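User: For my dataset I need records formatted as: sequence, then structure tokens, nothing else. Please produce one.
Assistant:
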Amino acid sequence: MGTQLICDPNELRKLFLFEKLDDEQLAWLCRDGRVETFETGPVYREGDPATCFYVLMDGEVVITKMSGGEEIELVRTDHVGSYAGAWSAYMGDKVDQTYNGALYVTRPSKFFVLDAGTFSAIMHEWFPMALHLLEGVFFGNRNSNERIGQRERLLALGSLSAGLTHELNNPAAAAVRATSSLRERVAGMRHKLKMMAHGKFDSNTLEALVQLQEEAAAQVAKAPTLTSLEAADREDELGDWLEAHGISNGWDIAPTFVQAGLEIDWLETVHGTLTACGGDTFEGAIRWLNYTVETELLMNEIADSTTRISSLVNAAKQYSQMDRAPFQVVDIHDLLDSTLVMLGRKIGDDIEVVKEYDHTLPHVPCFAAELNQVWTNLIDNAIAAMAGRGTLTVRTYRENGCAAVEIGDTGPGVPVEIRTRIFEPFFTTKPVGEGTGLGLDISFRIVVNKHHGDIRVESEPGDTRFIVRLPLESPETEAAQPITEG
């Protein structure tokens, strides 16, 4: 509480807020309000109940707001008539009646002060039409933001669902194809087994062949990854060797053996083993081993495909936070990875994804599903900025008691003249119909309002980075309020 002074109506008339008021109204202000002086320091703090409306009459004020655990200066002014405090008191309990920032004076300063209840009563009695207009604008904008924000989330969900369907379809189709081929190979093996049962292979040869079959199956699991050129060279060598050893159509078998990592040295061992067993069994044995190798490769393909499907489903559950509490303490990297998987199709093959994670970061208390929406918006904007070609960098590190997440792209950058506007509702640089301009606004409200964090952009041509900082300590209770509230 400051030192109270005598209120002079003529002095109030000099303030631009009150210059159009008549003598009776100015007298009312002096009767129901007060003039106070405050020494250097805080007048009110962010989050405290909004009890007063302040108009600067002399001195200098600073308005600050907490962001990412730090107090950020928003305004510094000595402009007489500047006002702050419970300016929304006229809307009563329709909106949160707490100070949304802190007010300090940098030197002894004088204010005209109205209690919030008095300010509300004056607004209702003196400006009823203006009050209705202000309420209409306030709640109309909020409702519009909510509806368009919901539409943007649905559009994003539709895009992600289409991408996920495409990603799931590929391994599912591969598994179906591999299963069909496997059925054919198993049928061929049964036919070959029937021929072998007619006595062409004696017991020693069968025993040797079964051992070779086990070796071939084991080799498939250890097969090296070859370049196209390396594979082609090995197929030529194997094809020549098979033809030289009397295997008809050896060129059809060679690619399968190369894919399994089987080399000429091993085939020489097979030839020597079967020759030692006697009889003309080599070609039949090679074709039997070919069935074995093809079967193993197809089963591996089915296993890889179903594993991919399982991974995509798990990523979708992680992304949507299905069956999980809204507020959790999570590994932020799990959220980032699930978002990258969900956006995999949109990212495409021409964008290189570089992940630079600091895995020493502690888990972060957060609303996980909503943070995934932030990562989606930022990554989607980066993809659009690069026109589908460039490098997407996702980096995490610790900064001033916060977990920092940096989404970088190599696009043309954000022009200086619009950097201060990109977090405004409905501001977009995309063509009409392609963007609502709410992606960054929603992201800002999720990070700042719900998590008491901070989001900023640093940009130059070829290097744009959106940096999100999230407190590592649990957000305050008010952070749990819906982001659609003003």
